[in-house]
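Aim 2 progress update. The chain analyzed this quarter is reproduced below.
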Amino acid sequence: RRSKLMNAAIDIMAGMVRPLGELLMTMPSGKRGRTAGPSFNMTTPPAYIPTPEIAYQEIARRFEKLSAQAQKCPAISSTVTELFDFYVGFFTEMAID
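Predicted structure tokens:
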């Protein structure tokens, strides 16, 4: 845990990705007796952004969109939606520093 970004990544994995993955794995898939699961498909290939400030702004925008979507889904816990909101501010602040 050498940097703010590394700490954030660990917190995001434990506090957001894991609970969302667990929730997804318990949802019905539409096939009798089967549950849903991640597809592991990426709709947009990752892009390298060489300027950290611009990268942090983009990450903040993505968390803002995800937060809005998560708040519309009653199955997602408030703890997860609050973390989305926290990281919008966190990455916005990182872009300024």
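The chain has a mean pLDDT of 91. The chain has three helices and no strands. These observations will guide the mutagenesis experiments scheduled for the next reporting period.
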